[in-house]
Amino acid sequence: MAHVAFTRHLQRFFPELAEGEVPGSTVRELVAQLDLRHPGLASYLVDETGRLRRHVNVFIGDEPIGDRVGLSDAVGPQAKVFILQALSGG
Amino acid sequence: MSDLLILGTRKGVVFIDRQSDGWKARPIAHAGLSISYAARDPRDGTIWAAMDHAHWGPKLSRSKDGGQTWENLSQLAYPPGARFIEQHLPSPENEWGANTPLAYKDAALLKVWVLAFGGPDQPGTIHAGTLPGGLFTSTDGGDSWELNLPLWNHESRGGDLFAGPATHRNHWGGTPAAMAYGEFVPGIHSVVVDPRDSAHMYVAISCAGILETVDGGQTWRSCNKGMTNDYLPDPDAEWGHDPHFITLCPGQPDRLWQQNHTGVFTTEDGARQWKRVDQAETAVHFGFPIAADDKDGHTAWVVPAKGDGERMTIEGGLYVARTTDGGASWQRLSAGLPAEHAYDIVYRHALDASGDRVCFGSTTGNVYLSEDRGETWICLGQNFPPVHSVRFG
């Protein structure tokens, strides 16, 4: 279980979205789990090839993930994950 | 003649209604979100908006209550295995050339550039032209979308890249309009459905040209005969053209109009043969949009601009040019439009005509309307966001 927090901007499209525990051992698995809870959410974070969208950032702790293409970064059971909009997107 | 205008803008959807005391804009919908295209489906009244999220990716949104409430949709997506041949802009860091080995890229939706609605015999059929060059069709009112594979796999694009490497030379180039997304890919900005036969459609691609299907999208063929250009060694090349927008006259559907990067073209025979109809005196040459009259195949409107290096108004003044003789001559229509200090550019989807009404919106947030076929113009607002599309509802 990782603790996942989100930019509040996503609540515009997913009003029920709230930070909390999400099962998964990689970022990709977290995104898949989040999409089950909030259908359609994954399409806001990754494109149809699974790549993180250009102006979305995911941090594990203070570090941005390394694999923006496959989201294979490992997520420990105590990890804190932040899903944020990137400054580059405006 | 429509009493509703729908603007797709940099900051949302603006509805402008004709009321007893004039045209009134409603509060903006999708406030703050860039809308690349917005239009009303004339068959069931659904309002469609193509959202162009900077952060969260392109999405469609639809309203079935005239714009009061919206439903956002994420279903339009390229299927696994959809690939295209990468294009490159030469740069100091990128010594790309004709000998560079082909590289393939997995397709992901960058932008829904245009939406078009099937005929009355096809309720629920909607077409979407996209970057990077895929045509999608929904037959269930937008709940699900399918990539048109015969066009995606067309030999002009290298053949079936799902099956393996390219089998034909690619003729589809990137459009500068994609560079805002950090890509240089082709885009479909025009989808034209023949009102006599919904299986007969044209698409226009920047940068490739026009293709036509007569069997509902199962097969496609080029329709670029008579097209010329000034940037390729062969000015009569079959491919490599840069249409900016094409449209047809609903009352005379064999009459099509094309505003191209290199001039204005028309055809009277369903795009079997295009004819160049520029006119130097009115600077009818470069521009982005073109609108056809509902009934009269000889009448069309353009908004001329200075091309290539500048992309500005002609001598600082904003005007519309109209032909009523099939492009043989054009009249400059400027009554009510600024004659100087105007820096407005009108994008390819931001000019529309409905009956005697003609309307356009500009990159500087001005919206002008004529209710007498362009003779005189009134300003509906000068402080709108940059306007991407204008469509009568």
Provide a descriptive summary of the structure in words:
By secondary structure, chain A is an alpha+beta fold. Chain A has one domain: Ubiquitin-like (UB roll) (Roll). Helix content of chain A is 18%, strand content 23%. Chain A has a five-stranded mixed sheet with strand order 2-1-5-3-4. In chain A, a hairpin with a 2-residue loop joins strand 3 and strand 4. The mean pLDDT of chain A is 95. With 393 residues, chain B is mostly beta strands. Chain B contains one helix and 30 strands. The longest helix of chain B is centred in the middle third of the chain and has 4 residues. Chain B starts with a strand and ends with a strand. The model of chain B has no long low-confidence stretch (mean pLDDT 95).
Into which percent range does the helicity of residues of chain B fall?
Answer: under 10%
Mean pLDDT of chain B: 95
Lateral arrangement of strands in the main beta sheet of chain A: 2-1-5-3-4
CATH domain class of chain A = Alpha Beta
* Total DSSP E strands of chain B: 30
Largest interface: A-B, 19 and 18 residues
Low-confidence blocks of residues of chain A: none
Described by its quaternary structure, the protein is heterodimer
Summed up, the helix count of chain B is: 1
Low-confidence stretches of chain B: none
Provide the residue-averaged pLDDT of chain A.
95
- In helices, the fraction of residues of chain A equals 10-25%
Morphology call of chain B: globular
CATH fold node name of chain A: Ubiquitin-like (UB roll)
Task: Bin the strand percentage of chain A.
Answer: 15-25%
CATH superfamily placement of chain B: YVTN repeat-like/Quinoprotein amine dehydrogenase
Q: What fraction of residues of chain B sit in β-strands?
A: 35-45%
CATH topology of chain B: Methylamine Dehydrogenase, Chain H
The CATH architecture of chain A would be Roll
